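Tutorial handout. Part one gives the primary structure; part two gives the three-dimensional structure as tokens.
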Amino acid sequence: MFQLIINKLGIFIPTFLAITLLSFSLQEAAPGDPVERILGHNSTSAISEEAYHATAIQLKRDKPFFYGTLSTQAFPDTLYRLVRKDRITALSSKIIAFGNWTLIAAYDRQLMALKNASKGENIQKVLERCAINEHPQQEQTLLKEAAQLASASQKFQTEVADLQTTYQTLSQNSTLWKLYIPKLNWYGIDNQYHHWLCAMLRGDFGISHTTKRSVLATLYFPLKVTLWMSLGAIVGAFLVGTGFGIWLARVRKTGVSYFISNFLFILHALPTFLVATCMVLFLTSGFFIEPVNMIGLAADTVETDEFSTFLYKNGLLLLLPTVCIGYRLMVVVARHLQMSLLDEFKKEYVQTARAKGMREPQIVYYQMLKNAAFPLITLFGQTFPLAVAGSVAVEIIFNIHGMGSAAYNALAEHNYPVIYVIVPLSALVAMTGSLIADVLYRYAHPQKGSNLN
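Part two.
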């Protein structure tokens, strides 16, 4: 058993780290600037440089993204120090176009100096567009526009002409061959991912961009709602599904068995959102029966409620979404157990037990069920992510703020600190379920379970 746990941890730890890196990379891969999203602006022109850089430093944006990067000779290893994502993107596009970082850096310094010197002038807006321009082929057009404005205002004509000359020199002295020579940059542990991972392991998951509260406080109530819905769905599905599976196996090759099996097959084929919509239409709107208030949660439910108080206020309201989440799992449990028991009925030890005079219920419950439980153990381990991930469609249809709707809203609002928690948490719970399933295998059937090592 100890060897099994050690082997599993040897797989889980690197898998968990890979998932945390993948979720942390979402912010870099997504369009837009995370600092701007936090400050609540859509344009950097409305944000002071002091506020921007203060927020960027707080987010560790002035540090490299990872321990090291694989780049080319054309790219410098200090480009991250610019902090501004649009500036980094603009300079990266120029590097790809020309490959000469020395001349690109000289041109950029000259451009930024002129932009700062022309503060308040019409030419400054054009120079700002040059500073964040991601299309080098448009740079000459912007510089010509700047030259026209300088000529009209009789200011900065010499500086703009020098800037045009510098860009012309850059375009004529490209070193594209550097783009094909790889280079490894090593930054050590002082990077964004390392600081975030260490903070997460300490229990500091950051601040939500939308609520301005800690991520743990933001997710506490959705997690509580989803846990009780999912746990109720899982327990109910396994209890009802196990009963159905045993009964279907015992009444095998009868008309009732075929009818119920086909009904369960059709039930499993129905999409969850369709079943949820029908429940809302027929059971809560008064279309079919007297309307019952079973949508949403109690208005006076607060996040500090104890479990007993929360369940008393919302038990009925969580009934229908719990059924929606669990009915397909119930069908899967029933069908798997039925098939396993039908296979066990063909084995010799069942015939021997019958020859000894044992009744069928005794054979099923005391001998066959243990051998047929392997598929249920696998299913049990796979249901763990459901306990924290929730169901987006069900929660939205029933107007319940659980983990599914929280993840959907976080993605829609680019609220990445919340996503940073939901994704690794779901992965951790899934891996824990896999470990528990393997341990149950060992207890249910030591001989077969020993092969898991």
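Part three, for discussion. Residues 30-201 form one domain. The longest helix spans residues 215-250.
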